Amino acid sequence: MHTIYKISPLHRLTGLALVLVAAGAVAQPVYRQVDKNGKVTFSDRAPSASTEPAPAAGQPGSAPSSTANTSGLPYELRQVAQRYPVTLYSGDECGPCGAARTLLITRGIPFEERTVKSNADIEALQRLSNQNALPLLTIGSQQLKGFSDVEWSQYLDAAGYPKSNSLPAGYRNGPVRPLVAQTAPAPRAAATPAPAAQPAPPPPASSEPTPSNPAGIKF
What we know:
219 residues; alpha+beta; Glutaredoxin; five-stranded mixed beta sheet; three-stranded antiparallel beta sheet; 20% strand; elongated
């Protein structure tokens, strides 16, 4: 089954509307293809005769830089993770997202997880994938919309990820982060205290004679 959670942007006070949608998926073989510019994609369509072969493991490719934690990984797994980094886009109260996360962890896939919670996150997800459904998995530049353990496993196989967990003991993925980075508000400048009011100077002593000072003496 292909399981998708659809989300709609709403006012933050009302939260996010989540609608569960299920659609059937038929297992198909997955082919890795490389165009003339070196861009690698995965497809369930067999490559044409003019399609260039995929580069062998360890050869230069066009995969984006990995943001997952690859330190301490076995050499072959590190090479695959750097060429075809895996990112899971998930949301709260999303059952398919939990199943997707479990598949990646059980198989030992190093991956980064980005959460979609705020309206800004939803807008960024729509710009990224042209849809508002979760989970979304990216393997390099390839996008898989909706969770299907069979389909996801086929694409991971095609990318060259091992079929069984080969992560070293104690390996941990990086921290889960929101899709849109939260910016902290600028600290407010401390209010400058108003200067204390200075007492008014006493009036100058008069040198004119008065009834109480007939000589006009200045004190």
